[in-house]
Design brief:
alpha/beta; Rossmann fold; 2 domains; four-stranded parallel β-sheet
Length: 402
């Protein structure tokens, strides 16, 4: 009887102890918010979800006591839709961090919500430099690129090579306007001139009237301040209109690997562009990218997708180091300890939320120079991290000590 009592007591203790053991596990809820079917779906879309899944798997391989749930949704490139999704994730699903968020007007809407709700946004997809400028927030980190970096990379290179007069074809939303502004400052700062610009709606199909205006300007450089399918279609129609034959050069101010893949080297050859990541940079980027391609239709990752992986992994490492998901403490830890990963190498989080790492100036190869699928870029130069992004004191971020 005594043995039976002891056995029952042990069983009862085990049953009572089971919830306590389960509670000891750390649960993290992540939301990947982006364009899943529109003009920016190739550069982000499902590939960004795959990148987040890879970060979770790589982290859990060393930390099996973490439960990481990944949500995903299509913001349809509409600020109200994106804001509604994030509010629901926070209120109903216990969201800790939102990732990606291409399309700057959506990112700026989410930027306000995560501050209000004391959550974190790690933005990889949007480009507007205001995110870490006058509108900076302690609840947003800008991970991959921004319009200032693109302007000083591609814009600066084009001006230095003789392209001192510009005409812009600009997407009519926050990102396009910010990119035109930042490139214009670079052009004017280097003694060049901006001869004009024209705005087009997002996901337009006919760019003929815009290209005719660009040709009529006689600018040496036609700057494309747009992205995704807008950039692809503008470049295609520019080839049909013979822009290059007329002596003008196209500057793709935000061109992704997925865009070049869609265009093909025959059309894209010679484009100069700035990126934060390329799959074929080194052994580490090649190994990670091949893992990505195995998971995602044989496609190599864009810099946005690589940024989702890098930002999420650094977040999870900070949560582990602290044993806490408190947003302010996690962000402080992410600033204190540099990020290290196979896609960007070493990155640092500044006081304004800007993440700094090298940027790269590439030229798209000619078809005869390519060694096979996805071998599209020739490295022109590396822009060091301390030169690649706007100086900390120049952004007017109120979080930066004066």
């Amino acid at each position: 009887m005594q043995g039976l009592k002891l056995g029952c007591a042990a069983l009862l203790a085990a049953l009572l102890g089971a919830p306590a053991a389960a509670e000891a596990r750390t649960a993290v809820t992540v939301g990947v918010l982006n364009d899943r079917a529109g003009p920016y779906s190739d550069l982000a879309g499902e590939g960004s979800v795959v990148a987040a899944e890879m970060a979770a798997a790589d982290f859990k391989a060393q930390n099996p006591d973490y439960d990481i749930r990944i949500l995903s949704a299509d913001h349809q490139n509409k600020p109200d839709v994106g804001a509604g999704v994030v509010r629901q994730w926070i209120d109903q699903d216990g969201l800790d961090v939102v990732l990606d968020v291409p399309f700057s007007s959506v990112a700026l809407a989410v930027h306000q919500i995560v501050r209000e709700k004391n959550r974190l946004m790690i933005n990889s997809g949007a480009g507007a430099s205001e995110i870490t400028g006058a509108l900076c927030s302690p609840n947003t980190l800008h991970w991959t690129y921004d319009t200032w970096a693109l302007a000083n990379g591609t814009g600066g290179a084009m001006v230095r090579s003789g392209g001192d007069t510009w005409f812009f074809i600009t997407a009519d939303y926050a990102f396009g306007k910010a990119l035109e502004r930042d490139v214009s400052e670079v052009v004017l700062g280097n003694g060049g001139k901006v001869l004009g610009s024209v705005k087009h709606p997002v996901a337009a199909t006919d760019y003929s009237s815009f290209l005719i205006q660009a040709q009529a300007s006689r600018a040496k450089v036609v700057g494309l301040a747009n992205a995704g399918s807008d950039t692809i279609n503008t470049i295609k129609q520019a080839a049909e209109f013979g822009v290059a034959e007329g002596g003008q050069r196209l500057a793709g101010l935000l061109v992704f690997l997925s865009d070049v893949h869609s265009l093909g080297l025959k059309v894209a050859q010679g484009l100069v562009l700035t990126e934060a990541f390329y799959w074929d940079l080194n052994d580490a980027t090649r190994a990670w990218s091949r893992r990505f391609a195995e998971r995602y239709k044989g496609r190599m990752p864009t810099m946005v997708q690589a940024g989702v992986y890098s930002g999420m992994l650094h977040y999870l490492k900070a949560v582990k180091a602290l044993g806490s998901k408190d947003t302010a403490r996690v962000v402080a830890e992410m600033r204190r300890v540099p990020a290290e990963d196979p896609v960007f190498g070493r990155s640092e989080v500044r006081a304004d939320g800007r993440v700094t790492h090298p940027m790269y100036l590439f030229e798209v190869k000619k078809p005869a120079e390519s060694r096979g699928p996805w071998d599209y870029y020739r490295l022109v130069s590396t822009i060091p991290a301390d030169q690649a992004f706007r100086p900390l004191a120049a952004g007017n971020c109120p979080l930066v000590p004066r």
